[in-house]
Amino acid sequence: MRAGARRVSNLSEEQRNKKRENDRIAQQNIRRRNKELIEKLQQEVEFLRKLDRVDLVKRLMRRNKDLEEEVLMLRKTLFLHTGRPYPASGTPFPCFETIQPEKKKTNSALRDRF
Length: 114
Hints:
Blueprint: H1 13-82, H2 94-97, H3 107-113
């Protein structure tokens, strides 16, 4: 092959048009493949994010169960040492039971002060 034989300037008008058409089709195919790849990767990222959230929830639930079992064991140990059962979950601590909420002062009580 001679040097420069593949140059566009050496092509006939018909060959240049054919080359432009081939180049245009090739570019369209590249853009389409790139778009498909991007969409596939976006779907994969979304799937992995969901999978990670599911894994996180499972780990948190497992940790919560472990902590609940530990609390139960500690309550049993406390009962063995003190002889008193510890309040069940959700009940207020004994020290909080004696604290009464502050009553609202009424307008008449404020008037009596002045």
